[in-house]
Design brief:
Layout lengths: L12 H9 L1 H25 L5 H27 L10 H28 L7 H11 L2 H22 L6 H84 L2 H26 L12 H15 L3 E5 L12 H22 L3 E9 L2 E8 L6 H5 L8 H20 L3 E6 L5 E8 L21
Parallel strand pairs: 1-2
Antiparallel strand pairs: 2-3, 3-5, 4-5
Amino acid sequence: MGEIDGTGGGATAADVRAGSSLTRISVTLAVALHVLVVGLCVVIVVNARDDGLPAVALELALVLVFLAVWFTGVAIARARPPGRGRPGRRRPGRRRRGAPAVWLAVLSLAWLLLILVSDDAVYLAFPLFFVLLHLLPVARGVVAVIVATVVAVLAFARHRPDAGFAGVLGPVIGAAVAVVIASAYRALLLQIRERQRLIEDLTVTRSALAAAERDAGAAQERARLAREIHDTVSQSLSSIILLLHAADRAPEPARAQRVAQAREAAQDALAETRQFIAALQPAALHGRGVATALTRLADRTRAETDLAVTLTLPPDLADLAAVPTPVEVGLLRVAQNAVANVVQHARARRLDLTLSALEGQIVLDVVDDGVGFDVDAVLADRPGADDAADAERVSFGLRGVRDRVSALGGEFVVESGPGQGTSVVAVFDVDGVSQDGVNRDSGPGAELPS
């Protein structure tokens, strides 16, 4: 029968859900109130049978008027759609408050006329209390209940002068009970609305966190893909370009050999790419292990360049059996990146690769006698003007390898200087990484990009 508070504000999603949560309670209270009104009206008519026909007719007519006004308000409330106005728009709210106010005035007038002719009509004040508290704002509703209580007490005193204190206590207790029940209903509604708003806020926050996690995952995946492409396809293409340039300058017998080497490098790159797309371990490791992969890398570098390449492996290759696959991948990527940098930028004569198996650790050293570079400047992405393009490529590759090693909980050290050659060292804790690439020291969330 109208709005709870008469503020005129539009119903939010939380209000709608809160209203749905209170539907059963509201229906139960409304039905009980209607039954109470009808029952009290029946009592009024039945008790009027000894007052004479004119009095009975008058009371019956006023009872019917009261019931007509009551259920007209019920019908109007059910037929009116929920308010869709916005809190800042005052006029629609005032129009919506107009109909309940008029209905309340007519209902109160019908009740006043009825209590003038029937003392039993005083009891209709109890359902009227609920209506006043339901339709009016809190302060106005309480004031209206107090006024109705005073009217009920005066009506009792007029019809039953001998009622004494009971004529005052009855309406007052009824008003107090109505105020308590209405206040509890309001508090329950506000609590449900607040909880629903909290749920909506939590839902929004959870969605935002999920989106942030997706974005972070996407950024991590992009970084992983960039490192993989740089360490595989990019390095292979650079090697092929160098071989083809060498073939252009070589005499006929050597030219065919360089072209064959370029073809082999292209085939290896294709295999790497297919394995990479299939999200498997590197093709160089497939079914071989890191020792075989490093041997093949050294042999190919020796065949494709003029470098004097040496590879030193542990005396007992069984020591490498306990190396997790993610660490093998990391070792191979470090070696591939370091060798590619030596071939393309170092202008070196010698290249030494050393794989050492210590207690619980696996160490890879890649050392050359080339021109060297400023490590701090390159890793900080501050190349000089003369070699900006080369330094940028070296910087990206070194930073990518550093991130890869760090993700596995390993240590990555680059030592170099102009004219001093370069030493690249990667150290992995074999026992600190699981077979699925999780760094046990940093918790289950430290996943290695494979």
